[in-house]
Records
---
Amino acid sequence: MSLATAELPSDPDALRAFAAALQAELYAKTLHIEKLKAQLATLRRARFGQSSEKLDRPRLGLRRRARRGLLHPDPDL
């Protein structure tokens, strides 16, 4: 279940915790999407060959950083 539809807390500390949970959820979903994109590229390569793979450089860099664990939802950590 997504936290995006939950009611916002009124307490500042609870709101901070809620924001952190939303950020963690977004990070997890971003990694899942990148994993699915990599799987799709692998399947396309298997079916159609190397020419079907046309990734732009920024997206490829993001995928590499995600695989290495260099993306983190909190820049202070």
Note: Residues 12-48 form the longest helix (37 residues).
---
Amino acid sequence: MTEEERKKYGADTVRVMGSRLHPFISGQPFRIRYLQEVLLLVSSWKDKKG
């Protein structure tokens, strides 16, 4: 995708990052704290432009 295409379509599109979590991680109560920390970190990242 060229820079012009990114400028043209970038404002009108949504970007999604999918991730899968194994029950070994998401199904353990003592691991939820670390999962929440990672999700907060990732959601705080700003989209790089250019």
Note: The chain has a mean pLDDT of 77.
---
Amino acid sequence: MVKYDQPVVSFAIFAPSRLCGEVFRMNALLTWAVQFALVCFALAMLLAFLRLLRGPAAEDRILALDTLYVCSMLTMLALGIGFGSSTYFGIALVIALFGFVGSAALAKFLLRGEVIEP
């Protein structure tokens, strides 16, 4: 059981949450790791968005979209770890599902010129 008079390391973006009736607090290393991961994912999303805008071919733009959905899924997972909430994991699962279906449809469109066959 966690005593409430103990000093706790916390940072601005992660508020402590309740987990199984006890106060759940991350240690400093995990907090810094999650924050570093979020910065890296944001940078990767920015670069992928630039490739999406400037891509010379349609294949480059599709790969940029794949990178964007994977980075957004990983961002949701990191936020779920950071906030201690399982809601973010469900959101990440939905992003992965829609991203995969979208990638398959775009690949079929580039290969055959149509998504739904008559």
Note: The chain has a mean pLDDT of 82.
